[in-house]
Design brief:
The complex is a heterodimer of chains A (114) and B (114).
Chain A lengths: L3 E3 L2 E5 L4 E6 L6 E7 L6 E7 L4 E4 L2 E6 L4 E6 L8 E8 L11 E2 L3 E6 L1
Parallel strand pairs in A: 2-11
Antiparallel strand pairs in A: 1-3, 3-8, 4-5, 4-9, 6-7, 7-8, 9-10, 9-11
Chain B lengths: L4 E3 L2 E4 L5 E6 L6 E7 L6 E7 L2 E4 L8 E4 L6 E5 L8 E8 L8 E2 L3 E5 L1
Parallel strand pairs in B: 2-11
Antiparallel strand pairs in B: 1-3, 3-8, 4-5, 4-9, 5-6, 7-8, 9-10, 9-11
The chains are: A mainly beta (114), B mainly beta (114).
């Protein structure tokens, strides 16, 4: 089951903040976040495991709300280099069929302008 | 550390022709994935290998797609015969098993079927 991402696209000026959401109708084991620039491979940003932890990577952080089966990616003080499409990937379990397998959302296109 | 290698980078074929893509994962990564990414969408899993065995190929159109991972290292994905709707970027990714982080993706092969 494909996770739902919102918004589909967002345009920011340098220095502004953004939030990208990822939600699932099925109980999650983990959520991954990736960024893909045009014509390039997706690059891993971070993984969040069930337990509601929050992680940070420079000025990009994320949270995982296990009760809502939702993760949010926070980009603060955006830079031009943050432009790209952000994908969340959801994982439902670590045993049985589908183990270690990510299902990706449709992506959120982020454009940062000067 | 060398990344995930894929070739060719681009391929243009006519419908009903056959094509093959090659992937060499990061050394020591037991798990290998092939994803199909249609323009404007998130990656969709086609097949997952662990070492040289297939873990999941439930979304692989087996009437035309095949994949193998001989000796548990590099892998080949083949399409025969190709259809117009197979036009997409084919991404290979690898991860250690058990996975304790994200996937590492290759740069992909952009296939155009005309």
């Amino acid at each position: 089951q494909q996770p739902v991402q919102s918004p589909q696209a967002v345009i920011l000026r340098e220095g502004e903040d953004a939030v990208i959401n990822c939600s699932s109708s099925k109980a999650l084991y983990s959520v991954h976040w990736y960024r893909q620039k045009h014509g390039e491979a997706p690059v891993f940003l971070m993984i969040l495991l069930k337990g509601g932890e929050q992680k940070g990577h420079d000025k990009i952080s994320a949270s995982f709300n296990e009760k809502k089966q939702q993760s949010s990616l926070y980009l603060t003080a955006s830079q031009l280099s943050y432009s790209g499409t952000y994908f969340c990937g959801t994982e439902f379990g670590h045993s049985g069929a589908g183990s270690y397998q990510l299902t990706f959302g449709k992506g959120t296109k982020l454009s940062v302008i000067p | 550390e060398a990344g995930v290698a894929q070739s060719p980078r681009y391929k243009i074929i006519e419908k009903r022709q056959s094509v093959a893509f090659w992937c060499n994962p990061i050394s020591g990564h037991a798990t290998l994935y092939w994803y199909q990414q249609i323009l404007g969408q998130g990656p969709k899993l086609l097949i997952q290998f662990q070492n040289n065995g297939v873990v999941d190929d439930s979304q692989l159109p087996k009437d035309r797609f095949s994949a193998e991972r001989l000796k548990g290292v590099d892998s080949t994905l083949k399409i025969q015969p190709a259809k117009l709707e197979d036009s997409a970027v084919y991404l290979c990714a690898s991860s250690p098993a058990p996975r304790n982080g994200g996937y590492t993706f290759g740069s992909g092969t952009r296939l155009t079927v005309v």
